[in-house]
Specification:
With 360 residues, this protein is α/β, with parallel strands linked by helices. The protein contains 15 helices and twelve strands. The protein has a seven-stranded parallel sheet with strand order 6-5-4-1-2-3-12, with helices on both faces. A three-stranded antiparallel sheet has the order 7-8-9, covered by helices on one side.
């Protein structure tokens, strides 16, 4: 990866023109493009026929493609000319050969990122895979679900968004390193890279993780419990045990020999779960959340969709955004912000003529 000598990369970011990103693909490329758009880049998306999504086409378009421009173009020579004006290219394809069919090796773009299920090299480079297959290959499916029932896959677009996030990080690292690079993103390897707890359990403790429903199993109590008007989930690592006792209002547990360590709590999990069930079953979600805040333990309230939309913490942080000219829509923002940043309302993507993009 040779260092770039171009003056463009040596200019201060605030002094040079807005970064130009060309996006081709589906949900991975779309999420990568969204990260760029959210941070001030000018993103142009080459419209593709998206695969089935967990949400409606309109919802996915608004979430992934706000603040972008979109072109309808199938002429690869025309797209190549458009790419020559971009600073970044993110291309998502179903296989290595399909990615190469675009001819991107001849495209003059300083930083290119290609996202495929298994990467551009290796014996599986042209295997096809859906996200649920990749989750199974990465070990996630084996750990999810009830022990005596079929395994479950993760909902939503976890695999695609993680791959898009890796591409975004890698491309920004290349820019800061002043390098011309072709970045090869394997969705399977993104999934594998995020299974660190599973790996550590095996390499450090000889534990092979397995399915235990809502019970995390290795850290007790970490489980879902029914309360008076719904459900709560708590995650009590050893350093939170004393605070958990105060939260449960069961001070006698501090001196109960069955629960002195995480290992003992694992051995006596059924007895402990019964005590917790009794302690919370007649208490409301609001009261339990208030207690958890006071005692400072990790506890989540299982909320309805309407409750999520009205969650005070999310409202305080302006998490729900209303696109310009669409007062009837709300979209979730990204879960980070820069200090002192002024965020503008997102704008639903507009369709432009390919000849009008990045003229001059």
């Amino acid at each position: 990866m040779p260092l770039i000598q171009d003056e463009y990369w040596c200019q201060d970011r605030k002094k040079r023109e807005m970064d130009k990103v060309l996006e081709i693909g589906h949900f991975s490329a779309g999420f990568c493009g969204r990260l760029f758009a959210r941070n001030g880049a000018e993103v142009v998306r080459v419209k593709q026929e998206d695969p089935p999504a967990w949400a409606s086409t309109q919802a996915m378009d608004v979430f992934l493609h706000s603040d972008k421009k979109m072109v309808h173009c199938k002429d690869k020579e025309q797209i190549k000319r458009l790419a020559s004006k971009a600073d970044y290219l993110v291309l998502e394809a179903t296989s290595a050969d399909f990615a190469l069919e675009w001819g991107i090796d001849d495209w003059d773009v300083p930083i290119k990122s290609t996202i495929t299920p298994f990467g551009m090299t290796g014996p599986k480079r042209n295997w096809r895979a859906t996200p649920n297959v990749l989750l199974a290959m990465g070990g996630y499916t084996n750990c999810t679900g009830d022990p005596e029932r079929a395994p479950l896959s993760l909902p939503g677009h976890y695999v695609e968004f993680q791959a898009g996030q890796f591409a975004y990080i890698a491309m920004n690292a290349a820019r800061h390193g002043k390098q011309h690079v072709d970045i090869d993103i394997s969705m399977l390897e993104c999934v594998m890279a995020l299974s660190q707890f599973t790996t550590v359990q095996w390499s450090c403790a000889d534990h092979v993780r397995s399915r235990h429903g809502n019970d995390f199993w290795w850290v007790v109590p970490t489980n879902m419990f029914r309360c008076a008007d719904g459900w709560v989930f708590m995650n009590i690592t050893p350093n939170f045990w004393d605070a958990c006792v105060a939260f449960l209002q069961r001070p006698e547990l501090i001196i109960d020999a069955r629960f002195e360590s995480n290992s003992l709590r694992m051995s006596n999990r059924n007895a402990l779960h019964e005590i917790i069930d009794e302690a919370v079953r007649s208490v409301s979600k609001t009261e339990l959340r208030s207690r958890a805040t006071e005692c400072r333990i990790p506890l989540g309230v299982v909320m309805t969709f309407e409750e999520v939309l009205q969650d005070p913490h999310l409202l305080e942080r302006d998490f729900w955004q209303t696109p310009l000219d669409h007062d009837d829509l709300l979209i979730p923002d990204l879960p980070f912000r820069f200090d002192g940043e002024k965020r503008n309302a997102p704008r639903v993507s507009s369709i432009v003529d390919v000849e009008e993009v990045w003229r001059g």
